[in-house]
Amino acid sequence: MKIGILTIHSVNNYGAELQCCALYQKLQKMGYDAEVINFLFGIHHNHDFTGEKLTVPISLKTKIKVKLLPIVQDFFCLFYQKNKTLRNQRFQEFHAKYNKLTKKVYPSVKSLNEANFNYDVLCIGSDQVWNYEKGYSLEPFFASFDKKGTKKISYGSSIGLSQLTIEAEEVFKKELSGFASLSVREQQASDLLHKLLKRNVDVVLDPTLILNNKEWLEVAKTDMCPKEKYVLVYIVTIKPCNYVLEVARKVAKERGLKIVRICRDAYPEHSGNDVKEVLTAGPSDFVGLFANAEFVVTNSFHGTAFSINFSKPFFSVIKSKHSTNSRLTNILKKLKLEDRIIRVGSPFPEICDIDYRESTKILEEERFRSIEYLKKSLG
Q1: 143, 260, 302, 346: which has the fewest Cβ within 10 Å?
Q2: What is the pLDDT of residue 154?
Q3: pTM higher than 0.85 for the full model?
Q4: CA distances from 130 to 6, 153, 269, 287, 368 (A)
């Protein structure tokens, strides 16, 4: 069975690249002939917007934010081009080694519409592929380009929003009605779509969690891991989150650890003289740094996912007492690890290890269930 995977990739984001790799690797290990359609998502520098329209209207404020984000990123990297080139190279090497991308590149929605794919199944992958507030067309992730009536399924697709606008409801109802099977990453998204579509919408694990720690060690590189024992910090927000570093410093002091931080791009985050910043890690280096850490402090979903997969003691930081991060809180609640959530500004938690016996058992059950969903959906 030939499967075409469509998801967000090649955007130099650790979570995006690793979830893409995980879904491809799992399908291959299950015996399917899978490949990733090499579509350049809107944030990619070579994306072609010719004739592209927003699937769902968004506010002017959101449009401005979408346009400014890549400009800000490029500005920050302006004086670190050597780092940027090396980092990009490591991402490309990762894809060449661990992903099978179509030889043909599809830089636009138009190019997908003109393509002549010959798949038995189109699998719309994970990440926030249905988040219309990203400011790009969702047509590719509804597989609107398919003219052959190819079987369509989704695996762990995310909306990333707590509610849909009326315009979005109309679009989702129309576009998702043709999918043979639907699954999402968060319970919140499942509830939204179940109410809208009046059909079952499974909740499955993020692809990074359907590979176990032994499978991820096959991908990991440890060249960037220091010889000293360390607490790992990974912060995904552009706005500084000093609280994460403060917690990491408390962990480091109590346990006698070095602090290592994976930066979100190739420029320094100016964390302080006591923090070793890693600026040029590729996805394999990212996995290796998590695998070898003694402790992790992060505000990232995928940072949390890899901490769990490698059974590391960790803290997941959420912005404030009023904010939510449904995909992060969902997985921690499911695995009975809610006590590892701390909110910005709250009193520092007790630095303690985690008894993973119950969580690991639940994770294995959820992993089995998620793989069974794939088997059943693919027929």
Answers
A1: 346
A2: 98
A3: yes
A4: 12, 14, 30, 26, 25
Tens of pLDDT along 311-332? 999 999 998 654 557 788 889 9
> How many C-beta neighbours within 10 Å does residue 81 have?
10
327-339 pLDDT per residue, tens: 888 899 999 999 9
Cβ contacts of 117 within 8 Å, gap of 6 or more: 4, 37, 145, 146, 148, 150
Token pair of 26, please? 């799992």
